[in-house]
TrEMBL record, chain A:
InterPro entries: ET-Flavoprotein_bsu_CS, ETF_a/b_N, ETF_b, ETF_beta_N, Rossmann-like_a/b/a_fold. Keywords: Electron transport, Transport. Residues 23-215 form the Electron transfer flavoprotein alpha/beta-subunit N-terminal domain. The electron transfer flavoprotein serves as a specific electron acceptor for other dehydrogenases. It transfers the electrons to the main respiratory chain via ETF-ubiquinone oxidoreductase (ETF dehydrogenase). Heterodimer of an alpha and a beta subunit. Belongs to the ETF beta-subunit/FixA family. GO terms for biological process: carboxylic acid catabolic process. It comes from the Bacteria. This is Electron transfer flavoprotein subunit beta. GO terms for molecular function: electron transfer activity. Its cofactor is AMP. The keyword Electron transport applies.
Automatic annotation (TrEMBL), chain B:
SUPFAM superfamilies: Acyl-CoA dehydrogenase C-terminal domain-like, Acyl-CoA dehydrogenase NM domain-like. PANTHER family: ACYL-COA DEHYDROGENASE, ISOVALERYL-COA DEHYDROGENASE, MITOCHONDRIAL-RELATED. Residues 248-396 form the Acyl-CoA dehydrogenase/oxidase C-terminal domain. GO terms for molecular function: acyl-CoA dehydrogenase activity; flavin adenine dinucleotide binding. Transmembrane segments: none annotated. Keywords: FAD, Flavoprotein, Oxidoreductase. InterPro entries: Acyl-CoA_DH_CS (IPR006089), Acyl-CoA_Oxase/DH_mid-dom (IPR006091), Acyl-CoA_Oxase/DH_mid-dom_sf (IPR046373), AcylCo_DH-like_C (IPR036250), AcylCo_DH/oxidase_C (IPR009075), AcylCoA_DH/ox_N (IPR013786), AcylCoA_DH/ox_N_sf (IPR037069), AcylCoA_DH/oxidase_NM_dom_sf (IPR009100). PROSITE patterns: ACYL_COA_DH_1. This is Acyl-CoA dehydrogenase. Residues 138-236 form the Acyl-CoA oxidase/dehydrogenase middle domain.
Length: 253, 396
């Protein structure tokens, strides 16, 4: 079975995001970028399936600016077999919306015919949590989102998900889309020899136009603002003082 | 604001020069994650214990991080100086100089001699285990009476009988040997010929060889997690095959490693310096005094701006020189400049940063307090500043 994993290049989770001066988005110039952590988990899961003998080949796909090939190389260094870069923007600040990403992925999937797609449940930049679901709808495949555990049994994937009330187990017939949650696994380090080997693994460079997909945005960003700074609290000496402040100053009692 | 935190929310990192290739950027990201998850949460305990668990070396070995100076045939990746600089800089950002020392003495300052001048048999015997972290190495050259002046070594080795196949008998003592207490393989410098630099040889001596003993585990000003030994060699018998790099060729073997070692100390200066500034920026932007943050005082901003600029200059020269060294160009002037000046800049930085932390910076447990202690040795070890300046002076 071939497993396809889409990966996104996002602002590194360690970086404190800053809003651009004109409020049009987050400033990404000269900011450290990394693979979306949920996508890293998805790559790790695909590698584990391959190690268990449930998958033969892992193809990683990234859509965005040219620099996303660094993200793909990281996935190759972890253990993916080959990569496809779809260049769809020149400016690092251009975000490709989930629907366009899903359409491009569908086009790749039509060509590649994977038995399973494992994606991150969401990207940590815009937290849309939409691409996996849209892709399932476009393909007409089953989907199991927010996976905390995946088991392959023949042509069925058994997926355990964390839901409000506890754990839910789904069975989806493959081909299917699974999206990875935080606790699915802990991604491995890329060892230095594997980093060196990744340089020699195939990376196909394509453009959105190659697939005939229009990536023009459907959404307009009205404004981006920093969250308001939290004001310092006050310490009260006694319960009486607290009650008095709640009554007289806060007006909530 | 948490002066005890090792990684503040806002980082201070200088961008990589354009010539740093993609694979080294990936290496940096992996080492950074390793430092954050495998070193920083545990290293306080190692400082207390005065010992780094062997498991750390094995984990580094499994990731291929101990073999960057060794050939692929023996389990390494043969990456060159630029890779070591990236590795050393990221380890230094852990804030635990002792951990950086223990690892890089193994990778870049001891086993590297074996790779450079060892025979295929010696390499095959030791390097795979060295790359895997199963064997930890130390370089035992310095003596109580001879440090930067390597030519003055007194430890002696003599052949026990005629012919080149005779065993060697080593007698003497060694001082300030990093990894000397818990390490496995000592690369020992000993006198096999006349006085001066021409009479020295190197030997591969397993630390459990009869006659090798730890005279004392030394207590230090800093680098507390790293073990440092005074070693005795009493009638230590090693086979003829233990001679490393030819009889009376030891000084030249050691000299060949100088440029790389000095460069590494520059990388530590850049990494520790930038990290100290990062920690201090976080502190002064939050700590308030006289109605405003300390960062709002112009004197603070100017001081940190100057220190940050100096670190950036050290770093730029380290990277440029690594590139030149990998290109096969002579860099003895540049590396002597780096070794003489990098640690002096770092000294200014850590003490300037400690000052800006106020009383908090004087407290045990804050990274800046430890960094100020750890940085001190870099002005001495690997060639003291004064010796290095003479090396610079000879070449200008």
């Amino acid at each position: 079975m071939k497993v396809l994993v889409p990966v996104k290049r996002v602002i590194d989770y360690n970086v404190k995001a800053r809003v651009k001066a004109d409020g049009s988005g987050v400033d990404l110039a000269n900011v450290k970028m990394s693979m979306n952590p949920f996508d890293e988990i998805a790559v790790e899961e695909a590698i584990r399936l391959k190690e268990k003998g449930a998958a033969e080949e892992i193809v990683v796909v990234s859509i965005g600016v040219k620099q996303a090939q660094e993200t793909l190389r990281t996935a190759l260094a972890m253990g993916a077999d080959r990569a496809i870069l779809i260049e769809a923007a020149d400016d690092v600040h251009t975000d490709i919306e989930p629907l366009a990403v899903a359409k491009l992925l569908k086009a790749v999937i039509d060509e590649e015919q994977p038995g399973l797609v494992i994606a991150g449940k969401q990207a940590i930049d815009n937290d849309m949590n939409a691409t996996g679901q849209m892709l399932a709808a476009l393909l007409g495949w089953g989907q199991a989102t927010n996976a905390a555990e995946i088991e392959i049994e023949g042509d069925v994937a058994k997926v355990t998900r964390e839901i409000d009330g506890g754990m839910q187990t789904l069975k989806v017939k493959m081909p299917a889309i699974i999206t990875a949650d935080l606790r699915l696994n802990e991604p491995r380090y890329a060892s230095l020899p594997n980093i060196m080997k990744a340089k020699k693994k195939p990376l196909d460079a394509k453009t959105a136009a190659d697939y005939g997909v229009d990536v023009a945005p459907r959404l307009t960003i009205v404004a981006t603002t920093e969250p308001p700074a939290r004001k310092a609290g006050v310490k009260v000496e006694s319960v009486d003082e607290l009650i008095s402040k709640l009554k007289n100053e806060a007006g909530v009692l | 604001m948490n002066a005890f935190a090792q990684t503040p929310e806002t980082g201070f990192r200088l961008p990589d020069p354009d010539f740093v290739p993609e694979e080294l950027q990936m290496l940096r990201a992996q080492v950074r994650r390793f430092v954050e998850t495998e070193i920083q949460p545990h290293a306080e305990a190692w400082e207390e214990a005065g010992e780094i668990p062997r498991d750390l070396f094995r984990k580094l070995g499994a990731l291929g991080l101990l073999g960057m100076q060794h050939a692929e045939d023996y389990g390494g990746t043969q990456m060159g100086a630029l890779a070591s600089v990236v590795f050393g800089e990221e380890l230094s950002r852990s804030t635990f100089g002792g951990v950086t020392a223990a690892i890089t003495v193994h990778t870049d300052m001891s086993a590297s001699h074996l790779s450079r001048v060892g025979t295929p048999e010696q390499k095959a015997e030791w390097l795979p285990r060295i790359c895997a972290g199963e064997v930890v190495c130390a370089i035992a050259v310095t003596e109580a009476g001879a440090g930067s002046d390597v030519a003055g070594l007194r430890t002696k080795a003599r052949r026990d009988g005629p012919g080149e196949d005779a065993d060697w008998i080593i007698d003497g003592s060694k001082m300030f040997i990093t990894n000397g207490v818990y390490g496995d393989l000592l690369i020992v410098g000993a006198r096999t010929g006349g006085e001066g630099a021409r009479g020295l040889s190197l030997f591969l001596v397993p630390r459990d060889t009869p006659g090798v003993s730890v005279a004392q585990k030394l207590k230090k000003h800093g680098w507390l997690s790293s073990d440092t030994a005074e070693l005795y060699f009493d009638n230590v018998r090693v086979p003829a095959s233990a001679l490393l790099g030819g009889e009376n060729r030891g000084f030249y073997a050691i000299m060949q490693g100088f440029e790389h070692e000095r460069l590494m100390i520059g990388a530590f200066s850049a990494g520790e310096g930038a990290k100290a500034i990062e920690l201090t920026l976080d502190y002064v932007r939050q700590r308030r005094a006289f109605g405003k943050t300390i960062w709002d005082q112009q004197a603070t901003r100017q001081r940190l701006a100057m220190l940050a600029s100096q670190v950036a200059m050290v770093r730029a020269m380290v990277y440029q020189t690594a590139l030149a060294l990998d290109g096969g160009r002579p860099v003895s002037l540049e590396t002597a400049m780096i070794k003489s000046t990098g640690p002096e800049v770092l000294h200014e930085v850590v003490h300037g940063c400690l000052q800006l932390h106020g009383g908090t910076g004087y407290m045990r447990g804050t990274p800046i307090e430890r960094m100020a202690r750890d940085a001190r040795i870099l002005r001495i070890g690997g060639g003291a500043t004064e010796v290095m300046l003479e090396e610079v002076a000879k070449r200008i």
